[in-house]
Automatic annotation (TrEMBL):
Modified residues (4-aspartylphosphate): 56
GO BP annotations, alphabetical order: phosphorelay signal transduction system; regulation of DNA-templated transcription
Keywords: DNA-binding, Phosphoprotein
Domain named HTH luxR-type: residues: 143-208
The protein's name in its UniProt record: DNA-binding response regulator
InterPro entries membership: CheY-like_superfamily, NreC/VraR/RcsB-like_REC, Sig_transdc_resp-reg_C-effctor, Sig_transdc_resp-reg_receiver, Tscrpt_reg_LuxR_C, WalR-like, WH-like_DNA-bd_sf
Classification via Pfam families: GerE, Response_reg
Ranges of residues in domain Response regulatory: 5-121
Lineage of origin: Bacteria, Pseudomonadati, Pseudomonadota, Alphaproteobacteria, Hyphomicrobiales
Gene Ontology terms for molecular function: DNA binding
Length: 216
């Protein structure tokens, strides 16, 4: 039986090293590539075609949602497992909408990550228990996220706006024209009912897309 090839995407080298060691202690697991940003992840995926991608969402520039969407556009069969600190249901649901097959938080046990990798590699879907509870609470209650009606790219642009990125910076990160970014910006405001950019930031924080410390 051939080894399961894995690509790690996280912008912290020490974090990647720790998870590489954890994963390669598992029989049949082999980390074949690492990347620290969305563009490098896409390029590395095209070069290595790993069986599973383990993807953080908090990346410099374009985030993990954009990386997921881009990889899945190139390979609709790509198996991507999100592994992140973001524990809100909004990010999890957008990750699945972008094409992820699993979502596990970094507060989960190591055994949960290993199990999720195996599940995703086998064609299944994986959720850590805390995220499953968050999604269930949202679906059963009245806590529908304000970003529920946004697409993955709109969600990514909202995140970047909330982080204080300019239209020009966002356009460069996502390979879009400034006019297109401005149009997205207007559409997002309309969909979420925001009157100002400050209101957008407040909504993004409330939805768990960014932490208050990272917002501007």
């Amino acid at each position: 039986m051939s080894a399961l090839s894995i690509m790690l995407v996280d912008d912290h080298p020490i974090v990647r090293e720790g998870y590489r060691r954890l994963l390669e202690r598992q029989p049949g697991f082999r980390v074949v590539r690492e990347a620290d940003n969305a563009a490098a992840a896409y390029q590395s995926y095209r070069e290595a075609s790993p069986d599973v991608v383990i993807m953080d969402l908090s990346l410099p520039g374009a985030g993990g949602l954009e990386a997921i969407r881009h990889i899945r556009q190139w390979d609709k069969n790509a198996r991507i497992l999100v592994f992140t600190m973001h524990s809100g249901s909004a990010f999890a649901l957008k990750a699945f909408e972008a094409g992820a097959a699993g979502y596990v938080t970094k507060s989960s046990d190591a055994a949960d990550l290993v199990k999720a990798v195996k599940t995703v590699a086998g064609g299944g879907r994986a959720l850590s228990d805390d995220i499953a509870r968050e999604i269930a609470a949202e679906r059963l209650g009245d806590s529908r996220s304000v970003v529920a009606d946004l697409g993955p790219r709109e969600t990514e642009i909202l995140r970047l706006v909330a982080m204080g990125k300019t239209t020009e910076e966002i356009a460069a990160f996502l390979n879009l024209s400034t006019k297109t970014v401005q149009n997205y910006h207007y559409q997002i405001k309309s969909k979420v009912g925001a009157r100002t950019d400050a209101h957008l930031v407040w909504l993004a924080i409330g939805s768990g897309l960014v932490e208050a410390a990272n917002a501007e």
